[in-house]
Amino acid sequence: MTTGLLELVGVSRMFRRDGRDVPALADVDLRIARTSFVCVVGASGSGKSTLLSLVAGLDRPSTGEILLDGNPVRGPGPDRGLVSQGGAVYPWRTVERNVAFGLELLRIDRAERARRVGWYLAETGLTALRSALPKQLSGGQRQRVAIARALACEPDVLLLDEPFGALDVQTKEDMQLFIRRVWRDTGTTVLMVTHDVEEAVFLGQRVVVLASDPGRVAADITLELPEERDLDLKRTPEFLALRARVEDLVRTFHHAT
């Protein structure tokens, strides 16, 4: 894949509150390379979800510009797929029809639609559940459906907003292994927001730490960890040191505001 270069240039977002402008993000500069996996962490009030909404095109910056492959982001589009904590699957649609939803809005023929749905069902381990309704699925399975639906449109960038925050620890770790594998298999650029520092260090190639009030880039850390990762990595001295470093940064830049 040759697309998926994401750039934020001087991005700020102001909100009107009680008759005055309140900055949620201030002068954010960020470059996310094609096919990379970048996690954003920060305390409450650091603008993590605001940043993701801007990249998704659900909101517009007050100042600055967001570029995808050199083209300004002006609104939502199939070149970006968004998955939130709730997953937002359609309860009246089967797994298969949930995955196909975005494809129904694109100009592709039925054969290509069926090929993509079949491939992403297999990739996400949902083939045997293709006829099930969301109410018959576990929380982790519903998140797999939401991720498969976002990926089926083959976006250049996958945006993940606390996607595993509502899951139990075991399911969350299973999903972490799952999303790393899917990322490697698809070559999609991933930008993920999470409050879980351990998760960010385990998943990302880079971790961006946002300071609070207003949200701004306080640190951008390249993680010197193996590309092939399993859960045992979380117990290694290298991992524990990186996690502690990021946790200290989050705490420092929260209390410094």
Automatic annotation (TrEMBL):
Recorded superkingdom: Bacteria
Keywords recorded for this protein, A-Z: ATP-binding, Nucleotide-binding, Transport
Cross-referenced InterPro entries: AAA+_ATPase (IPR003593), ABC_transporter-like_ATP-bd (IPR003439), ABC_transporter-like_CS (IPR017871), ABC_transporter_ATP-bind (IPR050166), P-loop_NTPase (IPR027417)
Pfam families: ABC_tran
Iron-sulfur in keyword set: no
Gene3D superfamilies per record: P-loop containing nucleotide triphosphate hydrolases
Domain ABC transporter, chain residue ranges per copy: 6-237
GO MF entries: ATP binding
Protein name as it appears in the record: ABC transporter ATP-binding protein
Taxonomic lineage from the root: Bacteria, Bacillati, Actinomycetota, Actinomycetes, Micromonosporales
